Amino acid sequence: AEMATARLSGTENRLVSLPLSRIRVIMKSSPEVSSINQDALFLTAKATELFVQYLATYSYKHGRGKEKNALTYTDLSHTAEECETFQFLADILPKKILASKYLKMLEKEKRDGEVREDDDDGEEEEDED
User: Fold this and answer.
1) pTM of the entire structure?
2) Cα–Cα dist 81/96, whole Å
3) Domain covering 38-115, topology
4) Where would I find the Transcription factor CBF/NF-Y/archaeal histone domain in this sequence (predicted)?
């Protein structure tokens, strides 16, 4: 409660690590936002910071990076894929795959799309892989 009554001044920069000016720019990039209250800016920054901290801690504890004493991208993408809380990040943190594998997947999707148009079940093609 003290933070709210203290009215944010120069002290807010010590309470959050993220740069408030950058967060303001990101918030203003939304067409629905016309003005940003200083308290809303601070709370958004703090909530973002806590979320990133939670994501990193969870990913580290549940990932393989613990063995190397490091948080890896693979740990983060695994968390986004496996943990329901973080599944909304799956598009932002996709699993790493080789470009050749990705191109094969695209080719298969294209073939399957053509097959579906012909009303064939496409099982023969799946057996090839």
Assistant:
1) 0.61
2) 12
3) Histone, subunit A (1.10.20)
4) 17-78
110 to 17, 78, 97, 105: CA distances (angstroms): 46, 27, 19, 9
pLDDT at residue 118 is higher than 80: no
Q: Are 50 and 43 in contact (CB under 8 A)?
A: no
Q: Are 46 and 13 in contact (CB under 8 A)?
A: no
Over residues 17-59, the pLDDT tens digits come to 899 999 999 999 999 988 999 999 999 999 999 999 999 999 9
Yes or no: say if 28 and 42 are a contact pair by the CB < 8 Å rule: no
Q: How confident is the model at residue 8 (pLDDT cuts 50, 70, 90)?
A: low
